[in-house]
Amino acid sequence: MPAFSRIRSKSGYLKNLAVPLCIILFIICLVKYSNTAIASALKAVNLWLDVVLPSIFPFLVASEILNQTGFIKSIGYFFEPVMRPIFNLPGSASYPFVLGLVSGYPIGAKATAGIRRDKLISKSEAERLLAFCNNASPLFITGAVSTAMLKAPFLGPLLLICHIASSVTIGILFGFAARKNMMNRKIKTGSYSDNYNNKYNGNGNKKVKYNNNGKKAYSVKTYAISSLLRNAVVNSMATMLSIGGFIILFSIISGILAESGIFNFIKDGNAKHVLTAIVSGFLEITTGLSKVCELQDVSSLFKLVLISIFTGWGGMSVHSQVLNAINDTDLSIKVYLLGKIMQSILAGAYTYIGLKITGFHLLMSDLSREASIILHVPGSAAWKQYLITSCKYLLIFLIFTLLIDIFSYNKIRFLKNKKSS
After folding, report:
1. Residues in contact with 415: Cβ distance below 8 Å, sequence separation at least 6, in sequence order
2. Does 161 reside within a domain?
3. Is 60 exceeded by the pLDDT of residue 229?
4. Has residue 292 been placed in a domain?
5. How far, in Å, CA of 321 to CA of 302, rounded?
6. Cβ pair 147, 385 in contact under 8 A
7. Do the domain assignments include residue 66?
8. Omega of the bond prior to 106 within 30 degrees of 0, cis?
9. Does some domain include residue 24?
10. Which of 169, 170, 161, 171 is nearest to 136 (CA)?
11. How many folded domains does the chain comprise?
12. I need a surface site. Which of 167, 334, 338, 372 has the fewest CB within 10 A?
């Protein structure tokens, strides 16, 4: 026992030293490869300022305002019949799911953390939702990737459909697994009573209680418009600064790894470029995608499948942003990481099948000369382009959710009047 205790003590000591040693190594690399670090940081800052900020900031502000006004609670009842059979999730989960599809990383994760803090969803449900609601935006896939990097706008819809399909598939699979776990639990305990079924939902979590009008019982929040907007802008800018910090950090790490010659043991130059692109995509999605698009002696089919895999994975930079978003909740990131691994595999498989059916990868040599290269235009023009497009997607999302809210309100009033009469 004393020997075992010493081994455990030594292991814990080494574990505590791991982070400081990594930081010291990182600082040494910064000094040695200072030019590469500065160039990578500058590139990341331009990316954050010209693309990420105008694309995500409007959605962050809108999400903060909707969270504070209780809007999410009002649409939960309407979407319950849709979300429960498909994903085995409550109706309130529809908000992070749809927002994550149209806004991009890490808005879906931030919205999920918000409804978990408001206790609109259980811990296990929130972790399953987190695994498939945090996705790349249509603007990023069709604009930055297809048009700017690949210079092939016609590939955008296919890549976007495969990305969304892989996300939805993960949600369905995780929902099915939750139902199966609940059934196995019931079989083991022999609990088939109506009381259990009435008290719990499909995955063993307590059901959300609704009153007789079909509307969830909650106290309506009172708020001032000035404080509402101020809080939304302040919180959104804090999130944007955090996102920018992660992008810069992982861009520097990716640049240093490429410059350090860590892959020099590979004699084949083409294989070295492929491995560098894969490592970069694992760390930071935008850097990795740009390196994949620059690969020369590889097939278009391989490049497009690899692009879908990276887009489904998201990169360690995005995962760090997700970890930061759920930091003040009780959610674990393990289910999320499992979901992203599965989504990357499915996205690659769907893309391979889609390209084999359509043959679009064979058309990459015959590119449109009129493609608008968004990332290569001057900074002010790129900022304007992304802001306008982001606001367009946001407007569509808000109109859709507003119509749903009006429909839900009228339905509740109808049920109330019917009961009173």
Report:
1. 213, 214
2. yes
3. yes
4. yes
5. 29
6. no
7. yes
8. yes
9. no
10. 161
11. 1
12. 334
pLDDT, tens digit, 9 for 90 and up, residues 347-364: 999 999 999 998 877 766
Which H/E stretch holds residue 316?
helix 316-325
Say what the alpha-carbon torsion angle 354, 359, 361, 363 is, to the nearest 10 degrees.
Answer: -140
Q: What is the pLDDT of residues 298-351, one digit of tens each?
A: 888 999 999 999 999 999 999 999 999 998 899 999 999 999 999 999 999 999
What is the DSSP track for 61-99?
HHHHHHHHHTHHHHHHHHHHHHHHHHHS--GGGHHHHHH
Other beta carbons within 10 Å of 59: 24
Residue 236 CA: distances (Å) to CA of 63, 108, 197, 231: 9, 14, 41, 8
List residues bridging with 216 in a β-sheet: 210
Tell me how far apart the terminal alpha carbons of the chain are, to the nearest angstrom.
76
- Give the structural domain span for 355: 32-187+196-203+219-420
pLDDT digits (tens, 9 = 90+) for 169-226: 999 999 998 888 877 776 666 543 344 344 444 444 444 443 333 344 334 445 566 6
Tokens of 47: 């990316």
Q: What is the pLDDT of residues 97-106, one digit of tens each?
A: 888 888 888 8
